[in-house]
Write a structure and sequence with these properties.
Shape: globular
Strand content: under 5%
Order of helices and strands: HHHHHHHHHHHHHHHHHHHEHEHH
Strand order of the largest sheet: 1-2
């Protein structure tokens, strides 16, 4: 029993824990309102479950390898003390093979088909499945032809056996994983220590929050415009149905009516608390009402509703984060009072203790980053005639001979850090917004993409860590020349052993390509990518949280006016945040107050105004409403105004009256539309259509049931 303690711990503890974590993540991130099919959730949950086993299976594999080598040295007559075997080698080999080929089949076969399936808007499972097969058929044919040609050439030229086909598959999958992970790690390895260091600088974090608020507001504007177009298309469909239903056969009319109701069902109910924009139509609908057209419209509406909900959630989240940072800075100056000793202790820890730990973590991760970059850059030196081993990780494993537990903890910490840096770079890169996970608002397509991401990258990153430790079969054959055949190997290295026979994309690629990370790191340090994107006004492809002074100024203004609105309207998010640990003075209903009166002194860096009414209209006209012509200028084009400080006037609301409301009789602005106020007149026509239709049909049925027919379908 003692011999298999690590194996039993892995099976009895970590496997159930990984399953529970997968379920928790699904429940946390899946979009509500039935947007995520059960089958999609099960498949993505299984992929996440298998991916979570990798960071534990790898340290266990490496630790068992050190034990086997120690015993082989002891059998050779050396006097060494070896740790007992804690896991069956056959179990480790089986676990790696099952996990690897499960992730391989999911990432390159099942999940691509599933991604097309969730994109299909057809009204039946069968039609969506066949759409997915047709959509991916060309992709699979092209990949299959290329793989067949490459296999034939390699077999004829290098005398590869049929057993080497698995080595070709492994090498090609590894090339993709190493290429993508190197790009993203070059950003994450540099930015994670900087992010940890700045975590203790709350003023810098507040500036970053302002920039992110600007990006979120721009995204909110785009989501509102897209949603308005979708609602306009539904209105156009309903109008076309009313005009053409008399000419339709009864069976087709009934079918089209059912499909239109399914499209309407995707629109949020007015009672859900989400205010929809006014429907607009960019062009007249000149097409027949067919099932395919309505299926495509249904998919567009569903996707845009999820994005609409997601951006609304992100905007509230950005506001809460910024408000808490501002309150924390003011609490440190004595402007806020905690409502209890618990709140005071919480604020003390956050204001003075956490910054110290964040700086320590920043220094530690910076050292680890330098070690990783140095090891990646010098991997190729082992192939020199002198066989230079310059990797500090290899020195730790082959020279220091650490004990079993230390090896496990060291490998576990390093692999987790690599994974954190990898996903940090991916989720910060705004071009990869499709991979974004937002609690309770993640659509099924994004979940599937995240499953593909995990299954394609996690094992190649783990193998890359084995590579920088020089624990691959190629490295061991050089470091232990003459004894390589008798040396114990990790099971993940044995699994990738077939790559040694593959030219170019095998050993050579894994030794030489990681050195490119040095170039990418230099580009990251110099902000070359962000500068290029700013030069061509393509900041939506830059990394999140990176911006200039204009974005920061505009974001601070947005946050300032949003805070005023929350306080004046008794916003529930603001009440919950204040009641948690603050006890500021509260505003009255008759006399709304500014931020300068809330909680004491207002920081002058976060309140802005435009001098006069004319300037206010010139700087920020009522541009947050959706224009009928859909040619509203972008949000970034309205961020060039110069704002004077120390006032709480709201430039988006127009001149204020004595009641604190805008004097302009215009439609609500973007910020009002996403608040808690009642929706403006005309915004509920789409969402109320089905309910009104049912009520009218019920009334008609009561009066004269015999006259009620499908022709009375109303919108």
């Amino acid at each position: 029993m003692t011999l298999l303690v690590a194996q039993l711990t892995f099976i009895a503890l970590w496997v159930p824990l990984a399953g529970v974590l997968s379920v928790i993540l699904l429940l946390k991130y899946c979009a509500r309102h039935g947007a995520v099919p059960v089958g999609v959730g099960i498949v993505v949950g299984l992929v996440w479950f298998m991916s979570m086993l990798v960071p534990v299976l790898l340290p266990l594999d490496v630790a068992e390898m050190t034990t086997e080598r120690c015993k082989s040295e002891a059998s050779g007559g050396e006097d060494v003390n070896c740790a007992p075997t804690r896991a069956d080698p056959e179990f480790l080999a089986l676990a790696w093979h099952v996990g690897y080929w499960f992730c391989f089949s999911m990432s390159w076969l099942v999940l691509p088909i599933l991604s097309s399936y969730v994109l299909a808007g057809a009204f039946s499972v069968k039609k969506r499945f066949f759409f997915a097969l047709r959509d991916r058929l060309i992709f699979f044919l092209v990949i299959g032809v290329l793989f067949g040609i490459a296999t034939v050439l390699l077999v004829l030229r290098f005398q590869l056996s049929l057993q080497g086909l698995s080595g070709i598959l492994v090498s090609l999958a590894n090339v993709f994983g190493v290429f993508v992970s190197t790009l993203m790690l070059s950003y994450g390895l540099i930015e994670v220590p900087k992010w940890l260091w700045k975590s203790g600088d709350y003023e810098a974090k507040l500036q970053s929050s302002a920039i992110r608020a600007t990006y979120t507001m721009e995204r909110m504007e785009e989501a509102k415009s897209s949603m308005a177009l979708a609602l306009g298309n539904i209105n156009a469909v309903m109008s076309l149905y009313d005009k053409s239903k008399k000419d339709m056969p009864a069976r087709k009319r009934k079918t089209i009516k059912k499909f239109i109701r399914l499209v309407q069902a995707e629109v949020p109910n007015p009672d859900s608390g989400l205010t929809l924009p006014k429907a607009i139509q960019d062009e007249a609908l000149h097409c027949a009402l067919t099932e395919d057209y309505l299926a495509g419209l249904r998919f567009k509406v569903k996707k845009r509703v999820i994005e609409f909900r997601k951006v609304n959630y992100l905007w509230k989240k950005r506001c809460v984060e910024a408000f808490e940072l501002q309150d924390l800075l003011q609490w440190r100056t004595g402007d806020f009072q905690a409502n209890s000793w618990v709140g005071s202790a919480f604020l003390t820890i956050r204001a003075y203790v956490l910054p110290v730990f964040s700086r320590i973590a920043a220094v530690t991760t910076a050292l680890l980053t330098m070690a990783i970059i140095w090891s990646e850059a010098t991997l190729w030196t082992i192939s020199l005639p002198s066989s230079l081993d310059l990797s500090p990780f290899s020195y730790f494993m082959h020279r220091l001979h650490p004990p079993y537990t230390v090896v496990m903890l060291f490998c576990f910490a390093c692999v987790l850090y690599l994974y954190f840096c990898l996903f940090f770079g991916i989720f910060r890169f705004r071009l990869f917004m499709l991979y974004e996970l937002v609690p309770k608002h993640t659509d099924p397509f994004t979940l599937v993409l995240n499953g593909i991401l995990c299954s394609r990258l996690l094992i190649p990153v783990a193998y890359n860590f084995i590579t920088i430790m020089h624990e691959t079969t190629y490295s061991i054959s050089i470091l232990y020349e003459g004894a390589a055949t008798s040396m114990a190997m990790t099971r993940i290295a044995t699994l990738h052993k077939g790559m040694d026979k593959v030219p170019v994309f095998g050993v050579s690629f894994n030794l030489y390509f990681p050195a490119v990370i040095v170039l990418f790191v230099l580009l990251t340090l110099c902000r070359v990518w962000d500068k290029i994107m700013n030069m061509f006004d393509l900041t939506k492809y830059s990394f999140e949280g990176v911006g200039d002074e204009r974005l920061e100024t505009f974001g601070k203004q947005l946050l300032s006016q949003e805070r005023n609105k929350w306080m004046n309207q008794r916003h529930p998010e603001e009440d919950a945040r204040i009641n948690r640990y603050m006890s500021p003075s509260r505003p009255s209903e008759e006399d709304p107050i500014s931020d300068s009166e809330f909680g004491g002194r207002q920081n002058s860096n976060y309140s802005y105004e435009v001098g006069s009414d004319a300037e206010r209209e010139e700087e920020l006209p009522h541009s947050f409403e959706v224009q009928n012509e859909m040619n509203s200028p972008s949000l970034r084009s309205r961020q060039n105004g110069e704002y004077r400080q120390n006032s709480t006037a709201d430039p988006l609301q127009g001149p204020e009256t004595n009641q604190g409301r805008s004097a302009y009789p215009t439609e609500p602005t973007e910020l009002e539309a996403f608040g808690e106020e009642a929706p403006p007149e005309g915004t509920q026509d789409i969402a109320d259509a089905s309910r009104k239709s049912k009520k009218k049909r019920k009334k008609k049925t009561k009066k004269n049931p015999a006259t009620n027919s499908d022709d009375e379908f109303e919108f």
